[in-house]
C-alpha cells in the first residue's frame, strides 16, 4: 500500500466528503480514505497495481469534483 494526497476541488459540504470517500473506497486496492473538506484534499492508501493515481483522480472527476 502507498499513501498519497490528492487535492480535491469543489467540495461544499460533508455530503460531498461522503461522496468522494465512497467513490474512492469502491475502487479495487483502496484501503483507508480520509477526505477533508477544510483542507480540500483526500489522503488515500492504495495498491498502485490495482488502482493507479490516474484511476483515483478519474474517479474523483467522474463524481463531479476537481482532482489536482
Ligand atoms: Mo452538499 Mo456536495 O448538499 O455535491 S453533497 S454540496
Can you walk through the features of this model?
This protein has helices at 14-25, 53-62, and strands at 2-9, 30-36, 41-46, 66-67. The chain is an alpha+beta fold. The protein has one domain (2-67): Alpha-Beta Plaits, CATH 3.30.70.100. A hairpin with a 4-residue loop joins strand 2 and strand 3 (41-46). The two termini are 21 Å apart. The site of dioxo(di-mu-sulfide)dimolybdenum has 4 residues, from helix 1.
- Tell me the domain tally: 1
Strand content: 25-35%
Q: Numbering strands along the chain, what is their spatial order in the largest sheet? A: 2-3-1-4
Number of separate strands: 4
Summarize the entry for a quick read.
The protein is an alpha+beta fold and 68 residues long. It has two helices and four strands.
Strand-helix topology:
Layout: E1 2-9, H1 14-25, E2 30-36, E3 41-46, H2 53-62, E4 66-67
Antiparallel strand pairs: 1-3, 1-4, 2-3
Keywords for this entry:
4-stranded antiparallel β-sheet, globular, 2 helices, 32% helix, 68 residues, binds dioxo(di-mu-sulfide)dimolybdenum, alpha+beta
Amino acid at each position: 500500500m502507498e499513501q498519497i494526497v490528492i487535492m480535491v476541488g469543489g467540495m461544499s459540504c460533508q455530503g460531498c466528503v461522503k461522496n468522494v470517500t465512497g467513490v474512492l473506497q469502491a475502487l479495487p486496492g483502496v484501503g483507508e480514505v480520509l477526505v477533508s473538506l477544510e483542507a480540500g484534499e483526500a489522503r488515500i492508501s492504495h495498491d498502485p497495481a490495482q488502482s493507479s493515481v490516474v484511476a483515483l483522480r478519474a474517479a474523483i472527476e467522474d463524481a463531479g469534483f476537481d482532482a489536482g
